[in-house]
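Re: beginner question about structure tokens

> Can someone show what the tokenized structure looks like for a real chain? I only ever see the sequence side.

Sure, here's an example I had lying around. Input first:
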Amino acid sequence: MSLFWFVVIIGVSIFVHELGHYLAARLQGVGVPVFSVGFGPPLFRFRAGGTEWRIALIPLGGFALVEGMAEEPGEPPKGYARLPFLGKALVLLGGVAMNLVLAWALLAYVFQAEGLPRPVNTEAQILEVLPGSLAERAGLKPGDVVVAIDGKPLRHYTDLGRIKERPGVHRLAVRRDDRTLTIELVWDPKEGRIGVRYGPRIELVRLPFWKGFVEAAAFSLRLVPMMAKSFVVGIVGVLVGRPPADLVGPVGIVSLAGEAARQGWVALAQLAATINLSLAVFNLLPIPGLDGGRLFLLVLRGVLGRRFSPEKEALINLVGLAFVLLLLVLITFRDLARLAGGG
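And the corresponding structure tokens:
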């Protein structure tokens, strides 16, 4: 089942991405002779609307063969090559835009079904209690929510630190499950610390789908710079042999898909949304062969007023794709080693 859900999520994500390129091209009168989900030998194909639609053997990518994007030396410009700058940029960014829209729709479903996490800053939730600490001896447990100290409601969750201002007994009003308890904590400055890690209580607020869609768009756009930085750090880490611990490739995603499937539809939607956001941001990186790399060359052409020859541009994109393939292989080996207990 893990492999099944991996293929479904990746297949739909790739289809939506390539559909963005397809629609952006066709809306401008540019033909798309081939549309493929997957690489390698076609498993299934048919013709419709002047396009051969394929499902291929290897489900780790896909392509929409836009007419004129790969120019032939000596041939007059056609299709994509005849579009103005904005038209070309629209074709290049169509896939990213579609992945973002799908991610927002999936997150909107999550916010509608489960709720949008929002912090309640006037309550302190205990996230961790250190073994043998003052907090453990007092009876605090992970999940407890402190709402008042010595009869005074918290104005901010950081007020929990007020305990250290006065040695002696402090009475904490604590909400645990459906009960409110009073826990006495005796602060002794010699202890040095209370022994808890805490933060604001997080509540889940269910939203209508349209509001969830707007919230998802705003949230993900704020997240883009951080995700881009994370990708750059991850790529450098892979190349120097010190990849981040949370970096996963196709094998790792298979495992995540299986776990999400066991948890239910909301977890699957969250995973699919994360994958689509990741595809969008990764494709925006200025690596030759990716959408961001092609867009970078397009901007460079506009700034310099000249372009690379079709042969040089094709070679640059080929080198970029080989680099991405190398990264994929290295990350896959790391996933396999981790599953085998080697890292």
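Each token stands for a local structural state, so reading them left to right follows the chain. Strands lie at 34-48, 51-65, 116-129, 145-149, 152-153, 168-176, 179-187, 196-205.
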